Amino acid sequence: MTGLLLYARSRALPATLAALAATAAFAVWAAGRLDAYLDPDRRVPIVAMAPLLASAVIGASLYTPSDELDRTAVRRWWPRRLAQLAGLTALAALLVTPAVLGHTETFGPPAVLRNTLGCTGLTATAAVLLGARLSWLPAFAYVTAVYLGSNTARGRAATIWAWPMQPGAATGAWATAVTAFVLGAALYAVRGARPEGPRG
Amino acid sequence: MSSLRVTGLRVRHRKTLALDSLDLALGTGVHGLLGPNGAGKTSLIRVLATVARPDSGRVELLGDDIAGHRALAGVRRRLGYLPQEFGYYPGFTVREFVAYVAWLKEVPAARVPAAVERAVARVGLADRVDAKVRTLSGGMVRRVGIAQAIVNDPDVLLLDEPTAGLDPEQRVEFRELLRELGTSSTVVVSTHLVEDVAAACTEVTLLDGGRIAYRGTPEALSLLGERAGGPGDHPIERGYTAALRAHRAPGAREAVR
């Protein structure tokens, strides 16, 4: 077995891919029950929650039980970490998109892509600061709070802080999500997930 | 010639000074690193293993200053390391785990299968090579840790508490392995078990409060114990406590340095 395959298994990539596929299947199933052809705004729960679930799966895959040994590797880690994070993010966006085809200006594929980037960025940052096992928590708390509290929010500021609930064409929301992803990915690539013992 | 040299090494761990202006040079052989809890043994091993950065000071391994990335990569190929707690990937077999570390160390792919078999056989786990690591006993997992540390035939081998969890027979076999490795490599063994040091080490360094309290051969440390008559059941234990007490005596620190 080659080293790269062992590396993929060490990061539980087979289980991660299966979990991402299950997330996508669930999103497609849930979207089919919303009758969104009547009103695209009904897709908001899918656009907000499916990327959040996918980012939680990605965050869990950033865990390494053998961080101390990994740090003695001859090659620098940042290219591998970046490839893993970016690859899984792209795959997650690709898998979840079929749940919300069409309506690109409102709650379609661009909004899913944006939210996948933003949520994964938050999750990657949390993996560095809190550890991979709890990396899902800050993004989950933030997106849930925004989901529950942004119904009446309007204006330019709202497109920034309530980015997960914005239509796909909202530039402020894109700027926030892309910034979150770039910062999170850079931080994770450079530092890796916070070391955690076998028992946390 | 020294394959490992540190000069003016200072390491802080949170607000504590773990290593305080440490100077140390070690060559081929088995070097025991003794000291009470918090003496700085693990901090020193982690810096030598290149997983922790010192706050100040110079670290040379195999003739290279490890501050530069190119030198660091070259040194890491020739370095073996067993941390106190190394963790393992739950789904991996012994063979896969050791092969994974060989990949980290960039052992040429064609050589990996034979290197893995040899390392696993040297720690007496040849019959468990395809067992999942999670199914092994604590002592066996420790031996898997030793196998991964030697898979690249390292020139510098750093072992932090390698005998923890090993039964007496396994410890005797491990000492034999240490003596064998020490003929061609620089082996540093951090341990609380002074009898392991007496049996397998060519030299002993005693740390206390981040400084060197004693350096010499295990025989000299035993002799010190016999002369000083400190507490302990074994001559080297008496030497250990006598050296510590001498180091802690008022005015002794500057004399040791």
What does this structure look like?
Chain A has 200 residues and is mostly helical. Helix content of chain A is 65%, strand content 0%. Chain A contains nine helices and no strands. In chain A, helix 2 runs antiparallel to helix 3, helix 6 crosses helix 7 and helix 6 (109-129) packs parallel to helix 9 (171-191). Chain A is globular. The model of chain A has no long low-confidence stretch (mean pLDDT 90). Chain B is globular. Chain B is built from ten helices and ten strands. Chain B is of the alpha/beta class. Chain B has a domain at 82-154. The mean pLDDT of chain B is 91. Chain B is 40% helix and 25% strand. In chain B, the strands form two sheets. A six-stranded mixed β-sheet of chain B has the order 6-7-8-3-9-10, with helices on both faces. Chain B has a four-stranded antiparallel β-sheet with strand order 2-1-4-5, with helices on one face. Chain A binds chain B through residues 1-4, 6-7, 9-10, 12, 64-76, 197-198, and chain B through 49-51, 69, 73, 76-77, 79, 81, 83, 85-92, 96, 99-106, 109, 112, 148.
Give the rounded overall mean pLDDT of chain A.
Answer: 90
Strand content of chain A: under 5%
Give the averaged pLDDT of chain B, no decimals: 91
Rg over C-alpha atoms of chain A, rounded to the nearest angstrom: 17 Å
Quaternary form: heterodimer
In DSSP terms (H or I, runs of 4 or more residues), the helix count of chain B works out at 10
Q: Secondary-structure element sequence of chain A?
A: HHHHHHHHH
- Biggest interface: chains and residue counts? A-B, 24 and 30 residues
Secondary structure: helix percent of chain B: 40-55%
Would you kindly provide a brief summary of this structure?
The complex is a heterodimer of chains A (about 200) and B (about 260). Chain A has about 200 residues and is mostly helical.
